[in-house]
């Protein structure tokens, strides 16, 4: 008997029994009496009799004899027992054994704790493979993926298809495991067991500072007084549990034991996270991929399909995550570094999923579906998941584009059917057999590609809810509740972008599981109670007209037809925090003749509990208790898109922010600027490029020069300024008195080895360096001697003469567009600098030299282009125009200056091509000691500059 391998000094643990501790019965007993699960009918009767003799009022059979008899009955009932079959039996019976709601609340708060969460040890006297299945089923049923746990139980051996008893873990065996954990340095935070008699293991846990919960067995009760007593010590958790477990419409649904569709969800891939991303062992994945590729018709198809699938997944050590850079299109670039734009990744995902699915369809996959090993089906689901995701992003862009002024958004019956059929392809694979006809509609898919590209100004958005298990459970629960109340919906209104999958999921899953029901139509509203905060021009509170104005024209007619009928219109959102969105929509639409009902998948019980206890939180709307008409299925995993401020974004960070491979070297030399119609092209310079990830992005966007900053404040101000970005190594050596971003030094050194031929490097400083500092700076950063020096400060003629020797790679001297002596200082630079090698940077941004010197951070006054042109006309030294406004505005300014006789070489930008600061994070670079990259550049924003410059 050994303690769990993961035990380590200081690691916190929860040690939890399962039977009669987390559930109100004994799982093994329930599995043995379940018709057809483990025993024949005759064996079931013999088992019941033996159980009464062992555990009845007058026991006559020892526990050891009972175990032996039970295994004999098992072996006589069926051949071919294995550990996997035993796990499957445990998983199956777990569907009938829901967790106590108090346990679910407790485990959710464990999962949501900031920082390292405790490891859970499920310690049971039951047979380990069976209990593994039970635990997996219980956590899946409670929608509690992502918990770190191990299972230790009595062992079974399998010989010739028979079960043979191994080591039995009784009370003393549990005590030994607990002792070994404590001896290994573990901290047991809580031990819960239904053995409420005195036992040395309880005493030892308490002496070590842990808490012991002796769970009183309460047969057939859906709630546990023992667990409620534990939660009562924390008033917030106690209220949370009472809210989730009550008899209200906002309390969690309690599905019936016999849900004939619940077992279909077992096909969903396993997950180790709270957001629904499938996670598979790398070796299992590789074997399944090889076998799947062997099924297709030709080697060429097999090779294409392999490339497509590998592009979809993300490897994280020994794990393969079935969603990666082609799925999370709205994630910040530090998370899944890729120089491609989100539109390019969207096309890659769509095209790859269509091709792979078509290959599988030609291989007769639908007919063979139920014969495929489960790991191969996980991979197919990954392909269809990416197809569904790409189609849903297209729907989001096109409907929001249709509402944007001047956008080319479009939606019609053909495109809507394309999106719905892509959802049907996925959900039919989950609940029945894949329906893949949609992948062969080439003309319609090409039209969708073109329209999404025309809507390039509409960005992709992160959907708050894209967890397939939560979506499916919500739809099944809601469909059942609608049937029970006789309120089958005529149509559903869901809310973009967070709930965009829900209406489509309901419509398609209903087609599969309830073909006798009338089809359910779907309309999508781009509306939230927070719209006013986001700048949408809506009446407050909105009336019917203003609400409908947030629905694309293609969907409005059907919405009005539902409202003018006498059927049920279902408002379906992913979550409620304040209940305001649904309350307003329900009030506005409820004035019609239709019966308007409201439902959500998730409820933010934490916020409700906070407000009821007068703690900080978002204010609940008036009458919030009456807003929902149907019960939700789970607690809300906060998922607002402000990066790093919600549980979902933090979970994505945990999954994908491991040390990253540096991107490959750019393949070709940087080309010279190219002009049109005889005009000279504009040079494109991007400032603050400090790592190979940002380098790859700016080179892909066509940059000709990069700026590397040496402008950092002295310590401790520098380190304090970086905390918001999460530095991973806070103790690099400060290099002398130089103003280096020393957290980024190693990343810059690595980038310097990857510079493509023809790319000009410019070092940006805010003070004039002497020769020794300049040389030291180049050596420390590993930069070429040909690097130019850019000065964001005023400079004298004497300093320029000295700098000519110091920095032979060229000088770039900045002049602020808003400084009072602009013309005088510009003419001084123009008469002093070397037009063959130097540039004057005319800075319109907040980085103007005089503003920096004065410590001003507000936006400048924006000098008029015509006034500047008169001051610069006929210049000798070429000008770079710098600003952090839009690419089109800067390029137009360059054209205007040229038209006024100003020699303009190009343009310079920094902040305009970066993601918001809250989405910037440090990331370790794999296999490069001490290298951490603060990834800032946004390929989508960079591409706007590419397009603007291409048209210059």
Describe the SSE topology.
Blueprint: E1 12-16, H1 27-33, H2 41-55, H3 63-77, H4 83-94, H5 101-111, E2 119-127, H6 128-141, E3 149-154, E4 156-159, E5 162-165, H7 171-183, E6 187-193, H8 200-207, E7 211-214, H9 225-232, H10 235-244, E8 279-281, H11 282-293, H12 299-312, E9 314-316, E10 319-321, H13 342-362, H14 365-368, H15 374-403, H16 413-431, H17 442-454, H18 468-484, E11 489-495, H19 500-513, E12 521-525, H20 544-548, H21 553-563, E13 568-576, H22 580-589, E14 595-603, H23 605-612, E15 634-635, H24 647-656, E16 683-686, H25 692-700, E17 705-710, H26 717-722, H27 745-752, E18 760-765, H28 771-781, E19 788-791, H29 797-806, E20 811-816, H30 822-832, E21 839-843, H31 849-854, H32 865-872, E22 879-882, H33 887-899, E23 904-909, E24 921-924, E25 932-935, H34 939-950
Parallel strand pairs: 1-2, 1-6, 2-3, 6-7, 11-12, 11-13, 13-14, 14-15, 16-17, 16-23, 17-18, 18-19, 19-20, 20-21, 21-22, 22-23
Antiparallel strand pairs: 4-5, 8-10, 9-10, 24-25
